[in-house]
Specification:
72% helix, globular, Lipoprotein
């Protein structure tokens, strides 16, 4: 198997590990959605009343019908509202920590709800486009006014990146430029939002040039580029954690950056598969897995940070992947797309 296969997959997924750690560290910078408009009575007087409310929601899931992806979004948002409110009340009561039966009953109800939702969702023939609709619609940040406003101020910067031309460089020249850029960026660092945008702007230009030459990268050892990029991103998040760069701005810029890279990479790989290029089995595997990364690797903040135009492109990518699968442009040795959809949804619902 070509070295580039594993290297690129690691390269695509490293940001997820870093972003998750950073999100946990600064989660408080965002306001969570209010639950005041719920049909449920959340004026609990006791632990038992809170648990009974959660049990009532669990019982109601038996009668819920899921026909479309929008139905899944509605149920997930309602579940999160009830669950978060009940758990918040329970954790304020010292009895929650003193009596194991409380946590035991809560966990039992929670598991029952999750199991029922999984069964209802997985029995449907959902598509990758449905995955996109479900993940974007059920993101905990989808209705967060603070996130929406902040993203609206950042997206124009990323839209302008498309007007910057690629470098005129072959495989060797672009790799050399990439390595020189990373070394320079590592020495310089990012001390403010302006320098962070400068880094993202130049990195994006080189990355797009790299993708233009992607078909020639088979067999190349990219581990130093992967490591260098990860070190710089770690440094950026460290600076934000230390207050050198605004943490909220940093998080959103890096989230939008990741979205853009994942989507551009997926589109490049889909186009390569579509054009019947002579690809080795390892290349087909790498391209296939990179093509479905938008549906796997984008996290909850990432889905909220997508522009409408990017979301439409993800949906178009979903349709194209299914078409390629139907026309056997993807090797029979790879996972069936419909099977992958169920795996993605199962993973998402299990961790929701």
């Amino acid at each position: 198997m070509d070295k580039v296969y594993n290297i690129i997959l690691v390269w695509l997924n490293y940001h997820t590990r870093i972003m998750k750690r950073f999100i946990v560290a600064i989660l408080s910078v965002f306001l969570m959605v209010s639950c005041s408009d719920s049909k449920y009575d959340f004026d609990f007087k006791s632990t038992s009343q809170a648990l009974d409310c959660y049990q009532s929601f669990c019982d109601e899931t038996k009668g819920k019908e899921i026909a479309h992806s929008e139905d899944v979004v509605s149920v997930l948002k309602e579940w999160k509202e009830v669950r978060d409110t009940v758990l918040s009340f329970l954790q304020k009561d010292s009895a929650y920590y003193a009596h194991s039966w409380i946590l035991s009953r809560y966990s039992s109800i929670d598991d029952s709800i999750r199991s029922r939702l999984l069964n209802m969702v997985l029995e449907k023939n959902f598509s990758l486009k449905d995955v996109a609709v479900i993940k974007r619609g059920s993101s905990v940040y989808s209705k967060d006014v603070d996130v929406t406003a902040s993203v609206a101020g950042i997206l124009p910067f990323f839209s302008r990146l498309d007007s910057i031309p690629l470098y005129h460089a072959d495989k060797n020249k672009v790799l050399s430029r990439y390595r020189d850029f990373l070394q320079s960026a590592k020495k310089k660092g990012c001390g403010n939002a302006g320098e962070l945008k400068d880094f993202v702007r130049e990195e994006d230009r080189i990355f797009r040039t790299f993708l233009y030459n992607l078909a020639e990268m088979s067999g190349e050892n990219l581990s130093d580029i992967t490591k260098g990029t990860e070190e710089i991103c770690n440094s950026i998040f460290k600076s934000a954690s230390q207050g050198k760069i605004d943490s909220k701005t940093t998080l959103l810029i890096m989230s939008c950056r990741s979205n853009r890279r994942i989507l551009l990479n997926a589109e490049t790989c889909i186009e390569s598969l579509r054009k019947h290029r002579k690809l080795s089995l390892s290349q087909k595997k790498a391209y296939y897995w990179m093509a479905i990364q938008p549906f796997v690797s984008i996290d909850q903040l990432g889905w909220a940070a997508l522009s409408d135009e990017q979301f439409c492109r993800i949906c178009e990518a979903a349709d194209e992947i299914h078409r390629l699968d139907r026309n056997s442009h993807v090797s029979k040795d790879l996972e069936n797309v419909s099977h992958m959809v169920n795996l993605i949804l199962k993973l998402y619902l299990t961790s929701y």
